[in-house]
Write a structure and sequence with these properties.
Shape: globular
Strand order of the largest sheet: 7-6-5-8-9-12-11
Distance between the termini: 46 Å
Number of strands: 18
Structural class: alpha/beta
Radius of gyration: 21 Å
Bound molecules: S-adenosyl-L-homocysteine, thymidine-5'-diphosphate, zinc ion
Number of helices: 15
């Protein structure tokens, strides 16, 4: 037995081991490179409830703190997506008398800023003080703690019940599921909803997006496993909708049993997951084997290019770069540096593999022969912005769903 399920205490069956890894967003200053924290990044599925999850976890205080590097407003796509999210809530769930919305993991206020501008009662719960401060500067009301049942009781006492609890790319980060869902139960009005959108196991399996696996992603949800998780905590999954984020996420809606009618979209997704045998041991074991093939192919390609005297750099330093470079053992011997537009990452090192992160002008100032597209979920935006690189003869390297050099015509059409 590899471990115990955090939802139902069933036994976990391990299917992929990505080796010794640091915290994925723990970008280091060069003087911090010694004494880095490592853990074993491996994923298993529960034989009883089907939930896919990390075997070992990193304490949340080591992941989220005043030096948290991820700023949600960093890409145009993210900003537009969360503003649309806020407008949808304003037009639907938040139209009653003096409505109230709580966001778990509100980060730099990317979603709640729009709610605040509309003058609607809200609260962001955000333990990473640096990003929480950015949100506060945008007029967002923030509580600087982790969300759990105690925080929920305090919010209820101070602000009353909540029409919507929202979370994006945060709920799968929370290992204390029991406390989380008891907190939701404490806060929601009888007709309130808990809406969250998170990376999807179906995308990881379908597109072999194994670099979505890292310390912060404790759970890899499916509609099937979320329905079971909700049921065990007295809530009901009533909707699941595909959203085009992080390569393909799902937006789940939980409500009190019987309060809302389950949608046809949910039924369709549950059927699709059963047909794909998504969380079946055979499917997951196949994923584990494919990930090993990607590692072999990527290292082979980079080693060959190096031997041929080509210059190779990385484009984007998302959390994903940590998983790939540490799993594949890629250091500055194979990739000179990576560039990223986030000022807080520049001048730092990628956790574990210690590739330097530089500003984008290190790329455009002297184009390399090849660029590995680590921020592959922004491929269209990046390739369109970097047409001059392709025009100068530069080539993109992608590694999901398979390792390949992108044809010039394809990059030019982006
Ligand atoms: N919602 C944003 C940010 C996601 S990053 C987006 O979708 O882009 C995840 C955020 O969740 C981080 O800012 C982290 O500090 C916060 N977080 C992690 N655990 C939390 C918890 N238990 N309660 C509240 N926020 C948490
Ligand atoms: P993101 O998509 O948020 O992924 P993750 O959750 O894995 O961190 O990260 C994308 C990263 O790519 C972010 O650090 C910003 C960077 N980036 C660029 O450097 N240039 C660009 O044009 C875009 C779109 C993103
Ligand atoms: Zn379980």
């Amino acid at each position: 037995m590899a471990g115990t399920c955090r939802i139902c205490t069933g036994d976990l069956l391990e299917f992929v081991d990505l080796g010794r890894q640091p915290t994925a967003n723990g970008f280091l200053r060069p003087d911090e490179a010694d004494g880095e924290f490592f853990f074993r990044l491996a994923v298993g599925s529960c034989g009883r409830c089907g939930m896919v999850q990390l075997i070992e976890e990193v304490p949340q205080e080591l992941r989220y703190h005043a030096g948290y590097r991820y700023h949600a407003s960093g890409s145009e796509g993210h900003r537009a997506h969360f503003e649309a999210n806020a407008r949808r809530f304003l037009a639907t769930e938040l139209t009653g008398e003096d409505p109230f919305i709580v966001e778990i993991g509100s980060n730099d206020g990317v979603m709640l800023a729009t709610i605040a501008e509309a003058g609607v009662r809200h609260l962001g719960v955000e333990p990473s003080a640096n990003v929480a401060q950015v949100a506060a500067g945008r007029g967002v009301r923030v509580r600087g703690t982790f969300f759990d049942e105690q925080a929920a009781a305090e919010i209820l006492a101070a602000d009353g019940p909540t029409d919507v609890v929202f979370g994006a790319n945060t709920i799968c980060h929370i290992a204390h599921v029991g406390s989380l869902l008891r907190g939701i139960d404490t806060l929601l009005t009888p007709t309130g909803v808990f809406v969250f959108e998170e990376p999807y196991l179906g995308t990881i399996v379908g597109d072999l997006a194994f670099d979505q696996i890292y310390d912060e992603h404790v759970f890899y949800f499916t509609a099937t496993s979320v329905a079971e998780m909700a049921r065990r905590h007295g809530l009901e999954l009533v909707d699941a909708e595909k959203v085009a984020m992080h390569g393909g996420s799902i937006r789940y809606t939980l409500a009190r049993p019987g309060a809302r009618r389950a949608t046809a979209g949910l039924a369709a997704l549950l059927t699709e997951e059963a047909e794909r045998r998504l969380a079946q041991p055979a499917t997951l074991a196949e994923l584990g084997r494919t990930v090993e093939r990607i590692r072999r192919d990527l290292v082979e390609l980079l080693t060959r290019l190096k031997a041929e005297g080509r210059r190779v750099v990385g484009y984007g330093a998302p959390a994903k770069v940590t998983t790939v470079t540490n799993y594949c053992g890629i250091g500055t011997d194979l990739i000179e540096f990576v560039v990223d537009s986030t000022p807080g990452k520049q001048g730092h090192l990628v956790p574990g593999s210690h590739l330097p992160v530089l500003a984008p002008d290190a790329f455009s100032g002297r184009y390399p022969d090849y660029a590995v597209l680590f921020a592959w979920n922004h491929a269209a935006e990046i390739m369109a912005n970097e047409q001059a690189f392709t025009a100068a003869g530069g080539r993109w390297i992608r590694y999901v769903p398979d390792v390949h050099v992108v044809a010039a015509a394809e990059a030019e059409a982006a």
